[in-house]
Specification:
By secondary structure, this protein is mostly helical. The protein has 16 helices and three strands. α1 (12-25) packs antiparallel against α2, α2 packs antiparallel against α3 and α6 (102-114) packs parallel to α8.
């Protein structure tokens, strides 16, 4: 199912069940697939079942890629069906551990906002901005934009004056309707107005918001480049030596990934990402295609399949984030510094 499928055409319970079955077939993708399943369960109204999936992930023997995100989603869901105390405890835990990913921050701040905890929400957005958006002349990465927009919205609701980060949010926002107008607390009164002009203006604002949401939902899968960690590449080339023409060395492989992504970015290609391959996963993919893993034409197809299963990591990494190559160095000090 595409993420932009109209809601009235979706059987959320059936879609959740399908995603759970798929997670069983692809255990390496279970985190992504079960999070999607939990989202469908929430939309179906079965919030306890969604919590059970979040708990299943949090108690799994395999390590999670983003445990803070799972906890944030669990907290938001719990609060929606009466478990406020537990939700608050989880939210405080997330704020204390201060994850470097903006997504958990946005989820818990919006949970506070939706329950009229505006002061706590703006504090949470602010903590995240201080952590992830240090003052710099560089444009913040796209993943952090929702932090700025959410902070702007709650500050507007509280009647706080604009500051530098509100101005930055205004600059980043590309909708034809400004953030100040979209986040105007008086908008709710427009919906009950008898004035046709006010109603028409509000319809225009709602269309602009809907357009932005649809654009975000309908983005294609990332244009993903395949990355092999050194041990996996060595195993691959021992098993299928003819692929050595594609990968003369691991160092050259890493350099080719960075240069290819930079060329794509310079050409205007959006939504770039990196997927990491494993030999067992690649062999299983080749078998499903009825082909030999030694066939180099399978490599880009394998990368696309991994991206479609939610395995792509956005490129370039965010400010201060570790390099995509797997080293412990920051991206700015690793492959970014080499260019």
């Amino acid at each position: 199912m595409r993420p932009d499928t109209p809601a009235e055409n979706v059987d959320h319970t059936a879609e959740a069940a399908r995603l759970e079955r798929t997670a069983g077939l692809y255990p390496e993708d279970a985190e992504t697939l079960l999070l999607r399943a939990a989202a469908h369960l929430e939309l179906s109204g079965d919030r306890p079942a969604a919590t059970a999936l979040y708990d299943r992930l949090l108690t799994s023997a395999d390590g999670l890629d983003n445990p803070a995100l799972v906890r944030a989603l669990k907290a938001s869901n719990l609060w929606e069906y009466g478990h406020e105390a537990e939700a608050r405890a989880i939210i405080e835990g997330i704020r204390t551990t201060a994850p470097r990913d903006p997504a958990p921050w946005v989820i818990v701040a919006e949970a506070l906002e939706s329950h009229d905890e505006l002061e706590a929400a703006v504090e949470t957005f602010g903590e995240a901005a201080d952590l992830l958006l240090p003052h710099s002349s560089e444009e913040p990465p796209p993943a952090t934009h929702p932090l700025l927009y959410g902070r702007h919205r709650v500050r507007r609701m509280l009647g706080l004056p604009h500051d530098d980060r509100d101005t930055l949010a205004d600059t980043l926002h590309t909708s034809p309707v400004s953030l100040d107008e979209l986040h105007d607390p008086k908008r709710v009164w427009s919906l009950g107005s008898d004035n046709p002009a006010e109603l028409a203006a509000e319809i225009s604002r709602l269309r602009a918001e809907l357009g932005a949401y649809r654009e975000a939902l309908s983005r294609p899968f990332p244009v993903a480049v395949l990355h092999w960690p050194a041990p996996e590449l060595s195993e691959l080339l021992v098993a299928y030596p003819t692929l050595s023409t594609e990968y003369p060395s691991h160092t050259e492989h890493l350099s080719t990934i960075e240069s290819s992504l930079r060329e794509l970015s310079a050409s205007g290609t959006p939504n770039l990402g990196i997927v990491t391959g494993t030999v067992p996963s690649y062999e299983a993919f080749a078998a499903s295609e009825g082909s030999s893993p030694s066939d180099p034409t399978l490599l880009p197809q394998y990368a696309t399949t991994l991206a479609a299963r939610g395995r792509a990591v956005a490129w370039p990494p965010g400010r201060g984030a570790s390099c995509w190559c797997g080293s412990e160095a920051a991206y700015g000090e690793c492959h970014d510094a080499a260019n």
